[in-house]
């Protein structure tokens, strides 16, 4: 234990400010946290769905959890079920074999829901394109709000894309009122 | 050259590792499989191809690892009824590969014994009909079909109190999709059956008709976590096909990248493994080190994962003296940190308690099932291409395989630590002795050529077989991931363990879905 504490104390904090939505500039965490709360009324819950990637995009999504990006500090967390999610983060060209699973995941996500398509593959099928085995980009299967190009997009760009999707959504008051299924027991 | 007293001549391909190719007939096909199995060789890969465009029928190929190198045997098959002798009785790992070859090319493995081989589709789910074979030359790969009903018959387990847990294809974490069917009593797993193929996106069909340079980009995206290993294996295949030599500096830089890829993955896995055993500190620290590592990749090579850096003929870019200095000083810093973290792992009784004896694969089972790569080395195997067939620059690095006999999660953690230190040492040596000169040499692609590449990636051996047509375009490119061998062994590793330990055991293998689904 002592060893662990010493190690932690010596390394200190490495967290960096978060990027501006879809741009390069950095913003302090408390502003973003505040904004997410204002728009969503709660922390942002993300469900990741790999619909057929090469797994390169997954490596960068995983990197978002490292202390440099510290997304939990921004009020963003990854959840295990689409039923708990506000946003689906979808990677890969959608393989024909994942088409149904992706649709079902989308249907299981309570409205209002956001979809961010990740990587060149998620945008338009990328190098794998469309074929007997691939549906191409995510938008060919479910509605997409924001696309984040790159092969794979680095974590800061992923984060900027996620923030852009949140900002594009109406503030929670109006959004929620219109949502019938924002009631216990939906789905 | 002749092998095992078989009456067929193998020709050595022009590759820096010993790879030999031969066309065999059916009797030799089976005799070779038997001889390799008896000599304790391994099946590396099995795949099919349609050669009717060149006036032949179909073909099936098998690649074996032997003490002398890799043997690639190709058997021509009848155009009307393409069938070949089943080799899964010698190599259980062949079962899924044979099923995949049938799904993609429509060639059948004929069981000469009792019968009862597994004839269920593997890569084909409901997306295309059973009589459509995407790699046959009459098909463009652009056909679209209505989704078919997809009722896959899992093997049932019966008994008092046995119930099934079905997981996937969409999993709870940020990992790739696949389906796991557990049969359990209480918490204890009696049987696990995997079903993969969800990520099949038609990579091998996509290669057909590409030019050789273009194919490099695709090969680098078979499994993103092994992009350097694939890009190098592919480049080696292209260069052996063209009879081209890469400049010395390029070979050294490739090894530098391959070892950096190994370290990056091991850092990621060591953190994730700690986290799966409820030791969040490990994830925070290792993921920090991994991020430092990837950022310097970006700075020096232009890409965090080093995609598209290796290209046929050499490297896409060079590094300067300043980058070398940065890379070297990072190696020293990371080595110190990893050494300290290893001490913390070793001292942590709670962590060790979760890792030791969990998900055990004995050396005997590993041999029988053909467990390969990193997981194989954690179960008493010693194969490591860098040590067994050291090609430049590994010939000057005195590589020894890191091996362990316990075969549990703790052993797979130990091998990762061991390999991490070894790779850091190699990276330093490579940077210290980096020769000068060009990093790329243009090459002329041979028409109707054959080439192969074989590389020890971080997960295990990556193999690429490449063939060109009369115009010099790709007629067939087969990419093989070591996950093919290791996925079936995971089904055994979990037996008798509890369900909540599955994520930990699974992570300790960390197999590729994309690499096997293609
Ligand atoms: S965008 Fe690139 S990294 Fe992401 S899945 Fe596609 S090929 Fe892989």
Automatic annotation (TrEMBL), chain A:
Its cofactor is [4Fe-4S] cluster. Residues 54-164 form the NADH:ubiquinone oxidoreductase-like 20kDa subunit domain. It comes from the Bacteria. Pfam families: Oxidored_q6. Belongs to the complex I 20 kDa subunit family. SUPFAM superfamilies: HydA/Nqo6-like. This is Formate hydrogenlyase. PANTHER family: FORMATE HYDROGENLYASE SUBUNIT 7-RELATED, HYDROGENASE-4 COMPONENT I. The lineage of its organism: Bacteria, Pseudomonadati, Pseudomonadota, Betaproteobacteria, Rhodocyclales. Keywords: 4Fe-4S, Iron, Iron-sulfur, Metal-binding.
Automatic annotation (TrEMBL), chain B:
The keyword Transferase does not apply. Residues 23-136 form the NADH:ubiquinone oxidoreductase 30kDa subunit domain. Keywords: NAD, Oxidoreductase. SUPFAM superfamilies: HydB/Nqo4-like, Nqo5-like. Signal peptide: none annotated. The keyword Metal-binding does not apply. Residues 287-440 form the NADH-quinone oxidoreductase subunit D domain. This is Ni,Fe-hydrogenase III large subunit. It comes from Aromatoleum petrolei.
